[in-house]
C-alpha cells in the first residue's frame, strides 16, 4: 500500500480552541466538533485513497469523522474526539496499516506570510465579504498566512489562537495551499504569527 500512497500531511491538534472549533463547525459536512476536542487531519495522494484510510481510522477507536474530501490531486479527512488518546491511537492504526511512520509525512513550508497594519475601511469591507468567521474592523492589523500542504494550516490557526486574543476570520485547508486570515492589535497579531510559524517549523517530515 505504502508504495502507491503519499502521506502529504499528518496534523494533530491536541485541543481545539474556541474560535477554531466554531469556525470548523460552519464548514464541516460531517460530525460537528466542539471546543476542547482533539483532532487529526490527514492529507494524501492519490485523493481516492481517502475512502480506505477513513474506514481504517473510524473503525480503530471511538472517533468521529468531520470531513472527507476528495479533489483531483489530493484527499483529506479529519477525525475528532474528546479523548486525545482515541485520536492518537486512530492515527497510529492508520500509519501501521499503511506501513508508514509519522516522519514519512511532508514537512510544511510557508508559501506566504504577511502582516498588514491599520487596514483601510474599504479593504476591510471587501475582505469581510469572504470571511466566515470574525469580521475585520478597520484599523486592525491582519495576518495572512499560506502553507503547503494545505492541511497544516489548521495547526497554525489553532496554535495562533492559543497564543493571543486574535479574531479568526477565515481558514481554507483544501487544495495546494492552506490559507489563514486573522485580525487584532498589532502586538497580538505578531504573537499569533510567531506561534503559527513555530508550530509549523517544529513538524518533522520529508522535504
From TrEMBL:
<dbReference type="InterPro" id="IPR037233">
    <property type="entry name" value="CcmK-like_sf"/>
</dbReference>
<dbReference type="InterPro" id="IPR044870">
    <property type="entry name" value="BMC_CP"/>
</dbReference>
<feature type="domain" description="BMC circularly permuted">
    <location>
        <begin position="109"/>
        <end position="207"/>
    </location>
</feature>
<protein>
    <recommendedName>
        <fullName>BMC circularly permuted domain-containing protein</fullName>
    </recommendedName>
</protein>
<dbReference type="InterPro" id="IPR000249">
    <property type="entry name" value="BMC_dom"/>
</dbReference>
<dbReference type="GO" id="GO:0031469">
    <property type="term" value="C:bacterial microcompartment"/>
</dbReference>
<keyword id="KW-1283">Bacterial microcompartment</keyword>
